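Q: I have 397 residues here and want to know how they pack in 3D. Can you give me a structure?
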Amino acid sequence: MPLPFAVHVLGLAVFAQGTSEFMLSGLVSSIAADLGVSLAAAGLLTSAFAVGMVLGAPLMALFSRTWPRRRALLFLLAVFVAVHIAGALTPSYGVLLATRFVGALANAGFWAVALTAAVSMVPDRLKGRATAVVVGGVTIACVVGVPAGAVLGERWGWRAAFWAVALVSLPAFVAILRSIPGGVRGDREAAPVPVRDELRVLTGPRLRPTLLTMALVQGATFCAFSYLEPLLTRATGLGAAWVPAALALFGAGAFLGVTVAGRYAERRPTAFLTYGMVALALGWSALALTAGRPVAVLVLIPLLGLLAFGTGTALITRLLGQAAGAPTLAGASATAAFNLGAAVGPWAGGLALDAGLGHRAPVWVSAALMGLALVVAGARRAAVAVSGVRGDGVTPL
């Protein structure tokens, strides 16, 4: 059974926004040089975006919870475009930091509504595929948008990449206007569940370990990814021209990982997640150890993209299933957990760089975060084994 066209439209819009979220990994050096700040400060632009995503997911979901989904999506996308134009024009690091935060608020609200809308359009057996299409917009951004942003930044400066994101968002705006149901609240959308009931679901014992695990996995991904450009050019010894290619390799692996997770993760979710997390811990360690060998690095980068986004997509699908009783905030909680990791990861990597530990240090931090994720998952399994109660109807992580 094919997915509704509207689900693919949401993936298109997420592609435009995902390009913005990830593209700074190929622009940190040029932004730092142009604005007169350190690499770590430029990396904090990614963290600011992620913090805005964490806060914006629940806030924007609650703000727009009584709106028709089309109105909410269009409003949030319009704000996103406006702040990127402002970011492209500003000469101030502080203003740029603020535009990243506000843009993230809009992006987070969009993600939260889009995830909920996508899974509500399909039967249960297709929810994993619908989630994968929305998340897949991010991976396509890694394959196409992020390398293109790096090329634009290399040739015409980092501001050109911001202008490109604003322009790419316009077709998504038109597509949403034409394909997402509109009208008054209630056009095949259920009445809002009381916020108190949704919060009770989200703060229950079933969801907390999944949320924490998701945040740690994404923290590991964003920690290494945010500083991939200086790793490649200063530790691996590759020229700047290799950066877009390496980013495209990561994105190609990520796209494959999302596709695999959307089709197969729900068949054996525990095994899929466990193997993926163990492989990620080993993979980030291997990248840190072999960072001085170009061939090894270029082989590991797409493999890590596959593992990171395949595991992340499976975690989002599991979370949305566990949070079925919170239809408004389910997508918000997934978005917040995803981006909490995206905020902490670059921050932790920046601390390691500022401590003088070298350009491999963020990758070692990624390996450590995956170790913590495995500890959380192991503690969850041990607790369930002791209690003899299965909290989510399936064998836990």
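Q: Anything worth noting?
A: The chain has a mean pLDDT of 81. The chain has 15 helices and no strands.
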